[in-house]
Give the backbone structure.
Amino acid sequence: MDIEEINNITSRILYCAYKVHTAPGPGLLESSYEECLHYEMKQQNLHAERQKALPLFYEGIKLEVGCRVDFMVEDAVIVEIKVVDSFNDVHKAQILTYLKMSGCRIRLLLNFNVAHLKQGIKRLIL
């Protein structure tokens, strides 16, 4: 998938995230935003797998569940939802690990616990 296609997907995901953040605003549980975002991505005809398990390869052994990502969208973009005061180094390290494990190049980290969603978006490229 080329960068133009990936940019189109991330733009559509962000459109959905802005729509979800605008309606209820901050203050809900992470699972509530996840449910709403999944609905909106379906409305945009995005193929989004929820709570997608990523395998972990450890010493040559494949462990079936190394982690779960909130969404794997179009097999190209990982979306992780947070409801936190601010992102910290652990969130960023987690993102890089998930990117390496998945083979994806793009990951969106969305924090819905902000006044304006623009303040809660981190786009990372591996």
The two ends are 14 Å apart (CA to CA). The chain has one domain: 3-125. The mean pLDDT is 90.
